[in-house]
Amino acid sequence: MNRPVLLATALVGVGMAAAAAEPARDAIVAAYSRQAQNENQAFDGFSTARGERLYLGPHTGGNTETPACATCHTFDPRAPGRHVKTGRAIEPMAVSVNPRRFTDAADVEKRFTRDCPNVLGRPCTAEEKGDFITFLINR
């Protein structure tokens, strides 16, 4: 490939990344990355595949009615969900459909604090939180 084509390709990639960027979400992911590095010196970045496994489950140890995030949020995170107990509607989890997802740090942490023990039977690690968000950013 010649230089102008490489430069144009790089600029298109940068433009796409900038269009998808959300400063508040980026700050949340960066904070979880710093925390994950502190928790695990071998941490080498978040994984969409691990986030997908976390989302889809099934998991043991938590509430038997909610063995996966997908129990309430559906197997397609682009679709609206429904709370398994209350029947309350839940907006889609995928950032592509719901760009407000993961933009309020206090709300994100509140939901992880509540939902991780229900699904996993324990708090989520920073790496799991970052993996989860990374998966949903890419959906």
From TrEMBL:
The keyword tRNA-binding does not apply. Keywords: Heme, Iron, Metal-binding, Signal. It comes from the Bacteria. Residues 46-139 form the Cytochrome c domain. InterPro entries: Cyt_c-like_dom, Cyt_c-like_dom_sf, DUF1924_SHP. The keyword Heme applies. GO terms for molecular function: electron transfer activity; heme binding; metal ion binding. Residues 1-20 form the signal peptide. This is Mono-heme class I cytochrome C.
